[in-house]
Design brief:
Mean pLDDT: 94
Number of strands: 15
Strand order of the largest sheet: 14-13-12-11-8-7-15
Low-confidence stretches: none
CATH superfamily of the largest domain: tm_1862 like domain
Largest sheet: 7 strands, mixed
């Protein structure tokens, strides 16, 4: 059978999931072609050729694009079997079925893809019998990346010395052992995670190094879910490729508890740690169930700075519980902690998404503000109780877009946003003390900012 695997958007990364799907389907005898619509156009010839078109839906933006592209696939090849796989698949199964999906696979999706292939070989009209969500432990295979665009076409990292490094992407675990209420991983994995064997991870890195990678992004929801596993991988990575750098994502909670591992990261080539801080407001942190405090965040800022490990904090700056005073205080706090250069401007405009299955739906605070589920936006819409905050959100997004187009320094964007926030909300505050920038980023920066 002919199978087209389509990635729509993965933060400028070459997809691990698509490569893994290709490896499993090729191993089962399928003829596989891959498309990455973040770089390529939807090729009508490939769609006409395909008996099955599989969309990878690992995140919100990717899913919304996939829904639009599926309509185009139907126009080009109405007989193709549609499949959706990945984090957003099972939780949105009714929506995918409504547009004609024959197979929906969430969680550990790879065996389900093989089962789909065998089912359709026997009977092209046979319905899916297996559950759309599987959390069975599996033996991962090295992703087959040959059908994807080359690494130089994807996002890159700019290091502190101003050099651009070709960036690869891999994962060492799937799922997460934490239950943060706003996280889309939680409705699928429910506090479970699965380690990908070190041999598979290192073989995947090896093929990307051979393809030109000078830096690797580890895309695990939390790199320290299995700290021993993480340590073995980065030490082996550094032994084999001493000049290869990498970046990771780690919770504040783990950065506090696993401080003895931070020098290991530094010494093995870690260029940057992303941490989903989300807020400095204790009430918001409690609602999101982040399991850290503002004080612990500031402790992590201090400890990583002392070790020379750049911190890339990310935030959900607009929630129904964010106050005008709290927003201004966040800007001033980041300036006082000397973190303005560390924060991608898009982080000042991130608005809370409440997807299907979110643990936030358990809270009366959420039920008080949400509207009915919007199946096309894939969220429960909400308006802030203070209309000034929704106006501020739109103004902040406009500033970010304008400054991105003119490549404004991060400190200028922060100051513009601070002035707008104090004017629109009528709050008072001390103007952020912003250090002068350099001719190159003071901290490493990925060319594709972390979004969703």
């Amino acid at each position: 059978m002919n199978v087209a695997i389509v990635s729509t958007y993965e933060l400028g990364r070459q997809s691990f999931a698509v490569g893994s799907a290709a490896a499993w389907l090729t191993g089962a005898g399928a003829n596989v072609r891959c498309l990455d619509l973040a770089i390529q156009k939807l090729d009508a010839g490939t769609i006409k050729w395909a008996d099955v078109v599989c969309f990878s839906v690992p995140m919100h933006t990717a899913t919304r694009i996939a829904l639009r592209m599926a309509q185009r696939v139907r126009e080009v090849n109405p007989d193709a079997h549609l499949c959706f796989f990945g984090l957003y698949a099972a939780v949105n199964e009714p929506l995918f079925r409504s547009i004609g999906a024959g197979t929906v696979l969430g969680g550990e999706f790879e065996p389900g893809l093989v089962a789909m292939l065998n089912r359709l070989r026997d009977d092209p009209t046979a319905p899916q019998r297996d559950a759309p969500l599987s959390l069975d432990r599996l033996q991962f295979r090295v992703p087959d990346r040959h059908g994807l665009p080359g690494l130089p076409q994807y996002a890159y990292i700019t290091t502190a010395d101003g050099r651009r490094r070709i960036t690869g992407y891999t994962e060492t675990t799937r799922g997460c052992k934490h239950l943060c209420r706003h996280c889309p991983v939680v409705p699928v994995y429910g506090g479970r995670f699965f380690a990908i064997s070190a041999d598979v991870v290192l073989a995947d890195i090896e093929q990307q190094v051979a393809a030109g990678a000078e830096h690797i992004t580890f895309g695990d929801p939390d790199f320290f879910n299995g700290p021993g596993h993480a340590r073995r991988i980065v030490e082996a990575l550094h032994d084999r490729w001493p000049t290869l750098s990498y970046d990771v994502t780690i919770k504040v909670e783990h950065l506090v508890r696993q401080q003895e591992l931070l020098p290991v990261l530094r010494d093995t080539g870690c260029a940057m740690i992303t941490s989903a801080v989300e807020s400095i407001d204790e009430r918001v942190l409690e609602i999101l169930d982040k399991r850290h405090t503002r004080e612990e965040f500031e402790l992590v800022v201090q400890s990583t700075r002392q070790l020379g490990l750049p911190l890339n904090p990310t935030f959900v700056t607009f929630t129904p519980w964010t106050t005008a005073e709290g927003y201004v205080e966040l800007l001033e706090t980041l300036a006082n902690l000397d973190l303005i250069e560390n924060v991608s401007p898009i982080q000042y405009g991130i608005r809370l998404l409440i997807p299907s299955g979110s643990r936030l739906l358990e809270l009366p605070e959420t039920q008080a503000v949400i509207e009915p589920f919007d199946p096309f936006a894939l969220v429960y819409p909400w308006n802030h109780p203070d209309p000034r905050m929704d106006e501020l959100h739109q103004s902040v997004l406009t500033i970010i877009q304008e400054d991105q187009q003119r490549e404004a320094p991060r400190r200028e964007t922060c100051e513009r946003i601070w002035r707008t926030a104090t004017r629109l909300t009528g709050t008072s505050g001390s103007r952020p003390k912003l250090r002068e920038g350099f001719g190159y980023p003071a901290v490493p920066q990925l060319s594709e900012p972390w979004y969703c």
